[in-house]
């Protein structure tokens, strides 16, 4: 794929309107050093140097999109108080629209705290309580989507399995937006059916679980992984989806389409420091590229380059326009 073609696709991005619907998370990173083992238990003692916060989950998808598109919206839930205020402040700082945000005093804002010592994650602490929308809240959300449709080029469903997305609401939004690009990052713990969407982008473990197949270790080369190829075949039939993009971590990505041979894209990552949010980057750039007129293969290639960049960064990261374009022109570019 030529740099000129990538630039042509990305140059259209500022005008796009994209809505991300899903579980909003506050990602907290505690950075420190391990210098001794605790005398209280055989665990490391982390001496904290700093703390950083990022929008996570569906909010991180929106943050990735915001590097390219001017009009990015999030639909999800937050509670009240410190964590909710921190997350909404971060979203405002990134100029992500909060018009569709639902603030509920009975909702616990989801927080994931990662404790990092010398670039290694020591432990992750999750604060969450699975809570769905009430019937009134769901109707309000569907009404908001219907009102926004003329301003939207695409909708992304980002399912972290925390309770926001349920089949009835999803089906009604898909029916309303059937002339838009609709992409999905699924969660096998929330067994939704994704019919009539543009693309679904599970990772390898999510794909196996969604297909009801037992996990097997990745085979080399990935393009000849018989179990992976069978999972792709099953999911194309199960979801009746136009495009199935399975992200494979250090192996890259595999694109499945009805009537076409699977298309394998090797990884672009040179160094892997942190895979946090890599799937968020993958679906954001795949969707963005489709909005820009890219074919599914071109969109997957752009998405793979973007994912290869963010895993080389620490924390929940994004990729910039300059970084993405450079990856198609620098050493080792395709």
Number of domains: 1
Distance from first to last alpha carbon: 7 Å
β-sheet strand percentage: 25-35%
SSE series: HEEEHEHEEEHEHEEHHEEEHHH
Concise synopsis of the structure shown:
The protein has helices at 3-10, 58-66, 82-93, 135-148, 167-176, 204-210, 226-239, 278-291, 296-310, 321-327; strands at 17-22, 24-37, 44-57, 71-78, 97-103, 110-117, 120-127, 154-158, 181-185, 199-200, 243-247, 253-257, 263-265. By secondary structure, the chain is α/β, with parallel strands linked by helices.
How do the strands and helices of this protein lay out in sequence?
Layout: H1 3-10, E1 17-22, E2 24-37, E3 44-57, H2 58-66, E4 71-78, H3 82-93, E5 97-103, E6 110-117, E7 120-127, H4 135-148, E8 154-158, H5 167-176, E9 181-185, E10 199-200, H6 204-210, H7 226-239, E11 243-247, E12 253-257, E13 263-265, H8 278-291, H9 296-310, H10 321-327
Parallel strand pairs: 1-4, 1-8, 2-6, 4-5, 8-9, 9-10, 10-11
Antiparallel strand pairs: 2-3, 6-7, 11-12, 12-13
Helix pairs in contact: 2-8, 4-5, 6-7, 8-9
Please tell me about this protein's structure.
- This protein is an alpha/beta fold and 334 residues long.
- 33% of the residues lie in helices and 27% in strands.
- The chain has helices spanning 3-10, 58-66, 82-93, 135-148, 167-176, 204-210, 226-239, 278-291, 296-310, 321-327; strands at 17-22, 24-37, 44-57, 71-78, 97-103, 110-117, 120-127, 154-158, 181-185, 199-200, 243-247, 253-257, 263-265.
- The chain has a nine-stranded mixed sheet, with helices on both faces.
- Strand 4, helix 3 and strand 5 form a beta-alpha-beta unit.
- The chain starts with a helix and ends in a 7-residue tail after the last helix.
